[in-house]
Specification:
Layout lengths: L17 E5 L3 E5 L4 E6 L4 H16 L7 E8 L6 E8 L4 E2 H8 L4 H16 L2 E3 L7 E4 L4 E4 L5 E3 L4
Antiparallel strand pairs: 1-2, 2-3, 3-5, 4-5, 6-8, 7-10, 8-9
Bound molecules: adenosine-5'-triphosphate (ATP) and magnesium ion (MG).
Length: about 160
Amino acid sequence: MKNLEKLKEFPIDERFVKSIGKGSFGEVYRLNENQVGKFLFCPSKEKLQSEYEICMFAYENSISVPKPEGVFNVLHPKEKQIYSAFVMEYISGETFSEFYQTWKIDMTEMWDLAEKENEKLRKINIFNGDFGAENAIWCPEKKKIYLVDFGHWKFNDIA
Ligand SMILES: Nc1ncnc2c1ncn2[C@@H]1O[C@H](COP(=O)(O)OP(=O)(O)OP(=O)(O)O)[C@@H](O)[C@H]1O
Ligand SMILES: [Mg+2]
């Protein structure tokens, strides 16, 4: 177990800083051109570290998730205080719910892609406890679906 007290401070690039998503447990801010940081409303380095670790495991097993960077001390853009944040790749796109509102198109194909990622997750013994329209991002540039929000992902016990 890493010493979580000694987190490195992660530099941010003010030109890109803005809130890009809010859920019930946290808020995600863009920190620089290519990365975002997830802050929890009830700060917990341990929870963020678990999100990082399960995301890394998925990433290493070729699941379509943002490339994880780690848990760092980051200057919170609104609070102007240092908090821990899980830093990962910025996915340029829209969640299914946003996308649906704008385009009103048949999203069956995209949803199938997300389901495929979920199936791959099950094969590596991860249970996605929070699969939904807010937690899947469609990236039109890459024509790819990314799963996000690892707060409710669990490793299944292997019998
Ligand atoms: N890597 C990313 N790149 C771009 N946008 C992201 C990224 N990660 C998360 N988001 C956006 O931020 C939103 C909130 O992130 P996330 O779902 O991880 O937070 P949460 O508070 O845990 O949500 P929930 O309440 O669903 O558990 C997402 O719905 C998505 O719109
Ligand atoms: Mg979410």
